[in-house]
UniProtKB/TrEMBL annotation:
InterPro entries referenced in this protein's UniProt entry, alphabetically: Cobalamin_biosynth_CobD/CbiB
Gene: cbiB
Key word S-adenosyl-L-methionine present: no
Protein name (record): Cobalamin biosynthesis protein CobD
Cited PANTHER family: COBALAMIN BIOSYNTHESIS PROTEIN CBIB
Gene Ontology CC annotation, any one: plasma membrane
Membrane topology of this protein: Multi-pass membrane protein
Organism name: Alloalcanivorax marinus
Length: 308
């Protein structure tokens, strides 16, 4: 237990100091391999669920089984640095903060075109159609949701299942980001990746929602989670963003422009419209929640009587 906790602490420290690798990130290679495999297998106009499941298995099973073999057979002194490296590559806390601040800074300075350009790098909605609250709303929602995916779910599966767990989660989450769209091409082919990602994120998302509440305004976070999350189209993003909006004391969700049309979305949270300070508030919420998770892991280990 302590080996995993110390590896998690080291990986979080590495992410804070170094951030993501500038080039040669394994997820970039995974994306290229996934694109090639999808073009080969997904040839039907309306996709095929069986081939989508096969694609997930082909891309996920070999690295996860290799990680499992290493976990079982390598001595701790060789395995530990690999665990640190694996979690560091899966985490994205510093990268998330850099993307968020790249939006918040020009927005606070009144440079709406630059704020729109920066938020367009992290969201899929039509950024050129966003007003200042719309830019802040898009960036805040991205921080809260990606904090759950890229930080807390990765940390959860690492602490629960070590290197195989974090690899499985990160690969499936990446495939869902590539294929989990409700379009004719991906509706059926991406179903396996989307459903498996929902399953793997179910517990971490709810722990993240609770953490956002504990690190912000707890009462409003819990009420928004209870009353609003079920109306969101994602079973995991709903609790995370509803609790995050309540914890921050702002209103998120609502109509947003996608592909030239307004998409109707439920309202999340209660309070004023977000602004540049809200983006910074979301990042601070994630930082405090990350400290909470690490402290909780150490406390649980101590209570369980595990020797450091």
């Amino acid at each position: 237990m302590w080996s995993l906790i110390l590896a998690a602490l080291a990986a979080v420290a590495l992410d804070r100091v170094l951030g993501e690798p500038g080039r040669g990130h394994p997820l970039v290679a995974l994306g290229r391999a996934a694109d090639r495999l999808e073009r080969r297998l997904n040839r039907q106009a309306d996709g095929d669920r069986g081939r989508g499941a096969l694609a997930v298995a082909v891309l996920a099973l070999p690295p996860v089984l290799a990680a499992l073999a290493l976990t079982l057979w390598l001595p701790v002194w060789l395995l530990w640095p690999l665990q640190v490296l694996g979690l560091w590559l899966a985490l994205g806390a510093r990268s998330l903060a850099e993307h968020g601040r790249a939006v918040a800074a020009p927005l606070a300075a009144g440079d709406l075109p630059e704020a729109r350009r920066q938020v367009g790098r992290i969201v899929s909605r039509d950024s050129d159609a966003l007003d200042p609250p719309g830019v802040a709303r898009a960036a805040t929602e991205s921080m809260l949701e990606n904090g759950a995916d890229a930080v807390f779910a990765s940390l959860f599966w690492f602490l629960v299942a070590g290197l195989p767990g974090v690899l499985l989660h990160r690969i499936v989450n990446t495939l869902d980001a590539l294929w989990g769209y409700r379009t004719p091409r991906y509706e059926r082919f991406g179903k396996a990746a989307a459903r498996l990602d929902d399953l793997l994120n179910w517990v971490p998302a709810r722990l993240t929602a609770l953490s956002y509440g504990l690190c912000g305004h707890l009462g409003p976070a819990l009420r928004c989670w209870r009353d609003q999350a079920r109306h969101w189209d994602s079973p995991n993003a709903g609790p995370v963003m509803a609790a995050g909006a309540g914890a921050l004391g702002v209103t998120l969700g609502g109509p947003a422009p996608y592909h030239g049309a307004l998409k109707t979305r439920p309202t999340l949270g209660r309070g004023p419209a977000p602004d540049a300070a809200t983006i910074e508030g979301a990042l601070a919420l994630i930082r405090r929640a990350l400290v909470l998770w690490l402290a909780a892991a150490v406390l649980i280990a101590l209570l369980c009587g595990a020797a450091p």
